[in-house]
Amino acid sequence: MKFQGAAHKYGRDIDTDVIIPARYLNTSIPEELAKHCMEDLDPEFVKKVQPGDILVAEENFGCGSSREHAPISIKAAGVSVVIAKSYARIFYRNAINTGLPIMESAEAVAGISNGDKVEVDADTGLIMNLTTGATYQAQPFPPFIKEIIEKGGLIEMVKDKLAAQSS
């Protein structure tokens, strides 16, 4: 799995209330959530992000409440992968469960600036800053996580497995 796009870089401790404000949790429709992704931190985010772009953040990304709406809104907004120094544990699991690829690399975060063109090879963990030519190494996805992401999330993967068993 390869991803390529422009970097949208943010700071540390970006919590789920900033990723998708609670006032929009009256829906779980991904396209509706996407309209308000990062709105309280960066009101222009949804206007700037293009399909395939990459969200980059410092430590503790996704802290706060355990709502799965946060990774859903990021993915639906068009972000292909998130690169951060570290993630809140519940966000990490919710991202995988909803099929949002996330990579952990302090070096990549330090070396990527807002607007840089970035390419991520999730199979090898290689992160390349195409703007500067720098490369960084993150942990590649283990096969079971890769399968969940490729299927679009845990629920879709389970549906496929059940359908295959009943055939």
The gist of it:
This protein has helices at residues 16-19, 30-34, 45-48, 69-76, 89-97, 106-111, 143-151, 154-166; strands at residues 2-9, 54-57, 81-84, 102-104, 117-121, 126-129, 135-137.
Characterization of this structure:
By secondary structure, the chain is α/β, with parallel strands linked by helices. Helices cover 35% and strands 19% of the residues. It is built from 8 helices and 7 strands. It has helices at 16-19, 30-34, 45-48, 69-76, 89-97, 106-111, 143-151, 154-166; strands at residues 2-9, 54-57, 81-84, 102-104, 117-121, 126-129, 135-137. The chain has a 7-stranded mixed sheet. It is globular and about 50 Å long. It starts with a strand and ends with a helix. The mean pLDDT is 95.
Mean pLDDT value: 95
Q: What is the makeup of the main sheet? A: 7 strands, mixed
Helix residue percentage: 25-40%
Strand order of the largest sheet: 4-3-2-1-5-6-7
**What's the total count of β strands?**
7
Strand content: 15-25%
List the helices and strands in order.
EHHHEHEHEHEEEHH
Number of helices: 8
Radius of gyration: 15 Å
Low confidence ranges: none
Structural class: alpha/beta
- Shape, per Cα inertia axes: globular
Through-space gap between termini: 28 Å
